[in-house]
Amino acid sequence: MESSDLGAVWLTLKLATIVTVLLLIIGTPIAWWLARTRSAFKGMVGAIVALPLVLPPTVLGFYLLITMGPNGPVGQLTQSLGLGLLPFTFPGLVIASVFYSLPFAVQPIQNAFEAIGERPLEVAATLRASPWDTFWSVAVPLAKPGFVSGAILGFAHTVGEFGIVLMIGGNIPDKTRVVSVQIYDHVEALEYTQAHWLAGGMVLFSFLVLLGLYTFNPARRKTL
């Protein structure tokens, strides 16, 4: 591999790791609320979270680009705070990736929370456990398979992104050029050998991720 290929691989792994941590932090309270609420807004919130599943990545990337651009509300805020603009930067890439991969983390965790049922939570309440203690001592351990699935899927989905990272991050070496964009560059330059190495690595990585998910995750094994 060329040094630019290795740089793209490292940047991709760095991006996916940071995004996965943020997905778990942001997605867990959303998943808990969706699993427990009886609000009339549940369907609307669930639909908003799931939008990246059906929207073309370029559509989501376009609107994020507008929002974070110089005339967008987020862009004006970051400029007023002296942070500059987020598009075509690594932090902007992280934010876009979190939006794009959010349903891949939220939905497995939500399903795991819903599968717990009311009984364990009611028992904890009778033992005078606070809602906070019940969540961390009962709900989270019982929903562990959902967290594993959400983390794996969120990580893998971030690694495989192309459209949205190209829209928001562009193609800046060692800053925003991830593996998928590097493969695109090789193909454009008719460098098929280099493209094969990276593309083959992506195929192998994706297979191993799914193999691990379906082999070692108890929740997945029960559905087979």
Automatic annotation (TrEMBL):
One of its GO terms (molecular function) is molybdate ion transmembrane transporter activity. It is a multi-pass membrane protein. Keywords: Cell inner membrane, Cell membrane, Membrane, Molybdenum, Transmembrane, Transmembrane helix, Transport. Gene3D superfamilies: MetI-like (1.10.3720.10). Its main location: membrane. It holds the Pfam family BPD_transp_1. It is found in: Cell inner membrane; Cell membrane. The keyword Membrane applies. The chain crosses the membrane at residues 15-35, 47-66, 86-106, 147-168, 195-216. Residues 9-215 form the ABC transmembrane type-1 domain. One of its GO terms (cellular component) is plasma membrane. It comes from the Bacteria. Part of the binding-protein-dependent transport system for molybdenum; probably responsible for the translocation of the substrate across the membrane. Belongs to the binding-protein-dependent transport system permease family. CysTW subfamily. This is Molybdenum transport system permease. It comes from Candidatus Dechloromonas phosphorivorans. The lineage of its organism: Bacteria, Pseudomonadati, Pseudomonadota, Betaproteobacteria, Rhodocyclales.
